[in-house]
Amino acid sequence: MRIKTTEWKAGDANRMVDAFLSRPAFDDKAQDVARSVLADVKQRGDSAVVDYAQRFDGASLSVATLRVSDAEVQAAAKIVDAKFRAAAKEACRRITRFSVAGVKRDWQMKTERGGRLGEFFVPFDRVGVYVPGGAAPLASTALMTATLARAAGVPEIVACTPCGADGVVNPYVLYALKLAGATEIYRVGGVHAIGLMAYGTRSVRRVRKIVGPGGTYVTAAKRQVYGDVALDLVAGPSEIAVLADSGANPAHVAMDLLSQAEHGTGHEKALLVATDAALINAVKSAMFAHTATLSRGAAIRRVADSGGIMLVKVDDLEAGIDLCNRFAPEHLELMVREPRRWVKKVRCAGAVFMGPWTPESAGDFAAGPSHVLPTGGAAAMFSGLTVDDFRRRSSFIEFTRRDLQDVLPVIEAFGRVEGLDAHVRAGTIRFEE
Asked: Model-level pTM?
């Protein structure tokens, strides 16, 4: 297993660090494949979706079996063990509580002449959530997407998740989707699932917005359907940065880095930025030792050998937070003595995990905020998924006669400069006898 180590100073050239930071959010090859598949789904609808399920997943489906039946969902609930059911309900409760607390409220203000201005929020009528399958059944993603939609008041929540070659969807994913509030579940994954939700078919009505993470092909597909539907953010392969000082526990740091590498697509990124050389050496040793004991050790080694793990020595935490901001990670852990001080300097991160008792996995499964977060450096531009991503904002204006009279000179000035006579007349006509 190859773990890169280096030193970094602000202003100095370091090709190794630059190469690590410069990971593309989109893959050119995936863009080409997604374009072709989406065009076919748009043209042939259900037939294309069934064909691609066979080609990519090895599943022999028909139009009638694309949707998971209520009987299958009920059967899945009986398979799921009681311990997981309890855990899922607790996670759902925490996610709902956080979402409800974060909902933006309608508001209004008075104008200078007795009118009103404000904003109000309305849930989408139909949204799509994508839950990856791939190497692991991401039941947690079902909760971290659909639960927010339900908390926002969305009446129709469409979920797509891949099935196995036998056509069966993981029962834990099905249970989580039902618990979270999904109203329709389709056993379809990949680019064709994005096309199914974005364009609709004879058997499935299109959605207004698609949310949820995915691999490079799903990310490419989401990018290309923007405009046909609304989207959340760029959420691709997982990544983490840990900022640590000499007080950090090396075993804890090592395991937190490995927790993201174990997704194992080969595109994950795990970065340690530390002020202490001894800590870096100890973390590196711990990563080797723990990897040998983990069930997904091969996946971790794949990520490491592709250059996805880097340990960087910096002179101080100021330089360290600078480097972390440049990386703009999906997850940022502050394993430092004064995390509340240093969080004020964070500018680009999907989510921040503060202190020694906050592993990234707590955010993945239990804390409350959604784990659907921007990747590939997109945290410099996007924020993580929230309940308000499932609602549309509308502003409103209610003028009085005196309000309009006050702004009429402004309307006339802009209308004159922009050559829009009707705009001006729409205001002045109201004062004509």
From this structure: 0.93
Catalytic annotation present for 330: yes
CA-to-CA distance for 37 and 49, rounded, in angstroms? 9
pLDDT one-digit tens code per residue, 35-48: 999 999 999 999 99
Q: Which fold has domain 4-25+236-367?
A: Rossmann fold (3.40.50)
Q: How far apart are CA 152 and CA 388, in angstroms?
A: 7
Q: What is the dihedral of CA 355, 361, 365, 370, to 10 degrees?
A: 70
SS3 at position 281: helix
- Alpha helices by DSSP H, listed for 121-170, are 139-152
CATH of 28-231, one of 3.40.50.150, 3.40.50.1980, 3.40.50.300, 3.20.20.70: 3.40.50.1980
Strands (E), 181-228: 184-186, 209-211
CATH 3.40.50.1980 residue ranges for the chain: 4-25+236-367, 28-231
**Active-site hit among 239, 268, 330, 333:** 330
Q: Which string of DSSP letters, residue by residue, matches 341-358?
A: HHGGG--S-SEEEESTT-
- What one-character-per-residue DSSP string does 77-103 give? HHHS-HHHHHHHHHHHHHHHHHHHHHP
Cα within 13 Å of Cα(338), Cβ side: 7
Of the listed 192, 263, 267, 331, which one is catalytic?
A: 331
The CA-based angle 88-90-94, given to 5 degrees, is 115
pLDDT tens by residue, 166-194: 999 999 999 999 999 999 999 999 999 99
> Going by DSSP bridges, is the β-strand pair 239-244/230-231 parallel, antiparallel, or unpaired?
unpaired
Q: Chain centroid to CA 109: how far?
A: 33
